[in-house]
Structure formats: structure tokens, C-alpha cells
Design brief:
heterodimer; A: alpha+beta; Rossmann fold; Dna Ligase, domain 1; D-amino Acid Aminotransferase, Chain A, domain 1; four-stranded parallel beta sheet; four-stranded antiparallel beta sheet; 12 helices; 27% strand; B: alpha+beta; GMP Synthetase, Chain A, domain 3; three-stranded mixed beta sheet
């Protein structure tokens, strides 16, 4: 039986779906988290505690385990684990991207430098040191611009500034965010942020799989809600895209070029792009699959999940089909409307009764402290829909969301 | 047969499983055993916890199957969405 190491942060939404996929494939699973499991002493060959922020130490720890019971694959399920997963795979000689490539994709400044040097269209950018005088740092910055931390995900800390006053306020706000206890920023990521040109246009997300340097597009999602700031909260994703075929081909071409520039040759990629009259602009390329519970919108071939594809690729197993089902699908990440504590959620049944809605998953729990963007990183939950057209999917998601009521004290 | 297995599973829960998950404020209840399938419910810090699946599949199920090889599967019947004090909360990263 093949043996698989999954790197599962305790804060990830992805545990259930990856464990389900591993069970479907019938592999022996070793789970590693950054905090100890209550059962680690009972199952030391199947439960590990790893410091994901120290990839070398994580690789050494796993190498000791693999010396006793060899591993066939390692998969990091989200951004916090990608570099550690690559380091472990490199140490054990398993299928993966080079550590340097994954590390560059995790650092927005390094990524921009790499992509710009390769001629991949990216917004103009410059790093800003948090210790610098923000008024002086604003000199030479063209407005509007977008300020963002180097290593956070899910639009956390991403703020648009239209003038010097907003620029200074945004820098101070991001600086304070990076000091929060729930933010694990170290090195440059704790001392710098990125200022970049605001690129107008529509935004899309490409979900792909790199196999020996070739990009296979698994899905292209439209993001129909305008993302114009001051914060950039992601809400609705719908696939297939309604953009013209020529624009979709251009997006795939630019994403493949971005992956090649970074050296991401194997495994899942999740790319975010803006598209306007000048063509596609790469905002992000992450060496992981889509976050949250959003992968539940995707089915391939005769029903394979995205997680099964990711695991099969890592294990070197055949994949019957990388073609997504034809039926349009979508997800709405339910945004947090304001800060407070969640008291109650109403209307879940009514939302689930909307034609086309497959699931309403409320992931926030009663009593949970809710932190909206730009400081927050969680959602109230996820709504999933399938319908005959992308427009019908989007309409169903909006209708279902309108039927939900969140009491926040 | 099932009652006997139920007693053995309950004994494991009492002596090994609940003492372990108690460290995170959690507890596990045996709901039933049917056709060698064990139905459990998780509470306290386990209910809605981001690591509940790891605890269940890599901890509890593995332990039960090692001790009681006749168990075919361990199934979670918990309504995790109703958890009010999960030990870990998920976020998009």
C-alpha cells in the first residue's frame, strides 16, 4: 500500500476533502500538523507535529520517519505548507516542485521580480520597508495603487490607496496586522510590504495542474463581483468562464508562462489574474490547489474530485481524465459583513431550497469572533451551486445568499 | 455479537479515547454499532474543530481497528456546524 504524507495545518478548511480523497484511493495516510494531535502518542507513525515555518527541520523529521516506513508522496494542502512539502519531497526524492520555485511563489515580491524578468505581464511594483517613513515611501508611487503583505493569502491585508493619505493609512494598518498573534510573518514578510499598480479589469482564477512542465487547465473561474477596493474580498466563483475563447486562451498562455518563469513544473497551481484591454495580468500564482471549500465545485471525468487528482499526481498514479464535468458550477464564499461575535445563522434551509443550490456549509460557529477584511481571513461559510448556465449558477448563489441572515452581536 | 462489540468499543472510548481528547476539551460518545460499523459523535472541543477529521481517522479509527480488528469502519455522526467551542477554527490560507 502506498503511503502518503499530508501536511494539514490546524486552520485549514481542506482536511476533510483531502482525507476523503486519500480514503477513496486506499492509501496509508500520515497526517502532519503544526500543533500536536491528541493521538500522536498512540500513532507516532501516522500523526506528526511539524514546524511548517522551518522546512529544513520538517524535512529532517520526516526523513527519520521515512527511514522506518518509506513514503511515496507528500502533499501540502495550502499556502502555509507548500514550502515545507517541497523541502520534504526534495529530501526524500519524491515528485514535487523545486523548493526555490515554491518559495518564490510564496513571496509576492520575489514572484513579481521573477515574472517581470521573464516578460510575464504583472503590475508595476516596489517593496516598501515598514520601518521607512510612509510619507517618503509614497514618493514615486502612482495612484491608485494596491498595498499588500508579502506572504498572506485570501486577500488578507490587501488595501487600495487612491492618494498619499490612504497610502500612509494602509501601510500603518498592514503593519499592525503583521503584528497580530494569528499572523505568522517572519523575515522579509514581517518587515516589508508590496506597493503595486492597481490594474482595472475583470478578475479570474485559473485552477491547473502542472505535469512535467505542461499546464493542464482544470477550471477557469469568473469572479463576477467587482474587486475594486478598498479591500478585495472574494465572493463568487463561477466556471466555466464567460470570457471570449480568445481571452481564455490568453489567460492560459500567460499562466503557463508564469509557472515556467517560477519553475513550477509539477503539481497543482492556483493563479489569479486581471484581464483588461491590454490582456491578462498575473496577480498571483500559488503552488497549491484552490483554497477554502471551493474545490467542491469541481468534478472531473466520472466524478473524481480535485483532491483525488492532486493525490494521484503526487503518487505518480494514472489520472483517467483532467476534463471537468460540462455542467456549470460555482461557489460563494460568504463574507463577514462586520466585526463581532456570531450569535445565530438563519435561513439555511431556505437558502438550500433555491433551485440549483447543492450545499450551504456554514463554517463559522456560534460565539466565534468574526474579523472582516482586511484583518480577517475566514468566511462565514460557503454556498455551492450547479445549473445549466453560468448565469443561472451566479443567480442561484446570489438568491441563496440573500436568504441567509447572520446575527452578529 | 454487536452488543459484545459495543461493550468493547465503549471500553476503549472510556479508557483510551476520551482521556486523549480531553486534553483539547473534547469528548466522544458511542452512538451505536451496526454490522461492525461504529457510529460516534464528537463533542466539546472536537465538535466543529478543524482537526476533527484527523483525530477521527488517524487517531480514533486507527486505535479502534488496531484493538478490535473486526471493526470495519468508524463513522462520525457529529453535526460539526453546531459546534460552539471548537479547539481549532479553519481559515482560508
Amino acid at each position: 500500500m502506498d503511503r502518503l504524507l499530508l501536511l494539514l495545518p490546524t486552520t485549514t478548511y481542506r482536511t476533510e476533502d483531502f482525507l476523503d480523497a486519500a480514503r477513496t484511493l486506499g492509501v496509508d495516510v500520515v497526517c502532519a500538523s503544526e500543533k500536536p494531535s491528541t493521538f500522536e502518542a498512540h500513532a507516532p507513525d501516522h500523526l506528526l507535529t511539524l514546524d511548517f515555518a522551518d522546512p529544513d527541520a520538517a524535512a529532517a523529521r520526516v526523513a527519520a520517519l521515512a527511514g522506518r516506513r518509506p513514503l511515496n508522496a507528500v502533499v501540502g494542502v495550502d499556502d502555509l505548507t507548500t514550502v515545507a512539502a517541497a523541502a520534504i519531497a526534495e529530501r526524500l526524492g519524491l515528485r514535487s516542485n523545486p523548493v526555490a520555485a515554491v518559495a518564490a511563489a510564496r513571496d509576492k515580491h520575489q514572484m513579481r521580480q521573477c515574472l517581470a524578468a521573464a516578460g510575464v505581464p504583472v503590475p508595476r511594483f516596489r517593496p516598501i520597508a515598514l520601518k521607512d517613513d510612509p510619507f517618503l515611501a509614497a514618493r514615486g508611487v502612482a495612484f491608485p495603487c494596491v498595498l499588500k503583505p508579502l506572504a498572506l493569502s485570501a486577500s488578507r491585508g490587501v488595501i487600495r490607496a487612491n492618494n498619499v493619505d490612504q497610502f500612509i493609512a494602509a501601510i500603518r494598518r498592514i503593519g499592525a496586522l503583521l503584528q497580530r498573534a494569528d499572523v505568522e510573518a517572519a523575515g522579509d514578510a514581517a518587515q516589508f510590504l508590496l506597493a503595486e499598480q492597481y490594474v482595472p479589469g475583470v478578475e479570474v482564477a485559473l485552477e491547473g495542474l502542472r505535469v512535467r512542465g505542461t499546464l493542464h487547465t482544470l477550471a477557469l473561474f469568473d469572479k463576477p463581483d467587482p474587486l475594486e477596493g478598498p479591500f478585495f474580498e472574494e465572493t463568487i466563483y463561477v466556471t466555466p468562464s464567460r470570457l471570449p475563447a480568445t481571452a481564455q486562451r490568453a489567460i492560459e498562455h500567460v499562466t503557463a508562462a508564469a509557472c515556467a518563469a517560477l519553475g513550477l513544473d509539477e503539481g497543482p497551481v492556483h493563479a489569479e489574474l486581471r484581464v483588461n484591454d491590454a490582456g491578462p495580468w498575473v496577480l498571483e500564482v500559488a503552488a497549491r490547489s484552490i483554497g477554502g471549500l471551493c474545490s467542491r465545485t469541481l468534478r472531473f471525468g466520472t466524478g473524481m474530485t480535485l483532491e483525488e487528482i492532486v493525490l494521484r499526481h503526487a503518487l505518480g498514479w494514472p489520472i483517467a481524465s483532467l476534463t471537468r464535468e460540462r455542467r456549470p458550477a460555482g461557489v460563494m464564499m460568504i463574507p463577514i459583513p462586520r466585526a463581532g461575535r456570531l450569535a445565530a445563522v438563519r435561513g439555511v434551509e431556505a437558502a438550500g431550497a433555491v433551485a440549483g443550490i447543492e450545499e450551504v456549509a456554514i463554517t463559522a460557529h456560534a460565539g466565534q469572533e468574526l474579523v472582516p477584511l482586511p484583518e480577517g481571513w475566514q468566511y462565514l461559510g460557503f454556498i455551492f451551486a450547479r445549473a445549466d448556465t453560468p448565469d443561472a449558477v451566479e443567480a442561484a448563489l446570489r438568491d441563496a445568499h440573500a436568504r441567509l441572515a447572520f446575527e452578529i452581536a | 455479537m454487536s452488543d459484545d462489540l459495543k461493550t468493547k468499543v465503549q471500553d476503549l472510548i472510556d479508557t483510551m479515547i476520551n482521556p486523549a481528547v480531553a486534553g483539547h476539551g473534547g469528548f466522544v460518545e458511542l452512538i451505536d454499532v451496526q454490522d461492525n460499523r461504529v457510529y460516534l459523535q464528537m463533542g466539546g472541543g472536537c465538535q466543529g474543530c478543524g482537526a476533527a477529521d484527523i483525530t477521527l481517522k488517524s487517531g480514533i479509527e486507527r486505535l479502534i481497528k488496531e484493538e478490535l480488528p473486526e471493526v470495519a469502519e468508524v463513522l462520525d455522526t457529529t453535526d460539526h456546524q453546531s459546534g460552539t467551542n471548537p479547539y481549532y477554527s479553519a481559515g482560508k490560507a
